[in-house]
């Protein structure tokens, strides 16, 4: 018999696969688009759809299911080292994604469509998007590490 906790954990892991998997695919989309510039706008809009409609909602469900598991598991608390560090990294990720990555991606699409792929504005936004994407990726990999290894101090 499957328990409610096991079902919750399944949903939590499934959302992690979706969120992190889609995020990891962005580099592939963008790399392929760089080799076929006529498809760059399509690839950027595709990344935006995947981010807005799949990855970001999955991150929201991850937070919710994770909090429920922490609050219902005896001996596990929000102040448990690996939980607390993961939550701090999660909040950092949300702030960077909402404040830098998502608006940069939106502006990058606008610049590409209005000014073209060789405009200074588009190139600067592409660089900013790449750097912020890498930083976010490293943070997310750190969160996954904490969730899997559950290190203690």
Q: Which helices and strands occur, and which strands form pairs?
A:
Blueprint lengths: L3 H32 L4 H33 L8 H35 L4 H30 L4
Verbal overview:
It is built from four helices and no strands. It is mostly helical and 153 residues long. α1 (4-35) packs antiparallel against α2 (40-72), α1 (4-35) packs antiparallel against α4 and α2 packs antiparallel against α3 (81-115).
Overall spatial form: elongated
Helix count, DSSP H or I runs of 4 or more residues = 4
Rounded average pLDDT: 96
Based on CA atoms alone, the radius of gyration comes out at 18 Å
End-to-end C-alpha gap = 35 Å
Short overview:
Helices cover 85% and strands 0% of the residues.
Task: Tag the structure with descriptive keywords.
single chain; 153 residues; mainly alpha; elongated
């Amino acid at each position: 018999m499957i328990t409610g906790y096991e079902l919750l954990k399944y949903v939590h892991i499934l959302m992690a696969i979706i969120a992190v998997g889609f995020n990891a695919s962005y580099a592939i989309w963008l790399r392929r688009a760089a080799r076929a510039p006529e498809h760059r706008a399509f690839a950027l809009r595709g990344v935006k759809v995947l981010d807005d409609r799949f990855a970001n909602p999955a991150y929201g469900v991850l937070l919710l299911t994770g909090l429920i598991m922490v609050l219902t598991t005896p001996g596990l608390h929000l102040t448990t080292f690996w939980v607390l560090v993961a939550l701090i990294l999660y909040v950092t990720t949300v702030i960077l994604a909402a404040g830098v990555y998502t608006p940069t991606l939106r502006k990058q699409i606008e610049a590409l469509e209005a000014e073209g792929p060789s405009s200074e504005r588009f190139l600067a936004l592409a660089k900013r998007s790449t750097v912020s994407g890498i930083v976010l990726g490293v943070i997310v990999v750190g969160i996954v590490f904490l969730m899997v290894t559950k290190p203690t101090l």
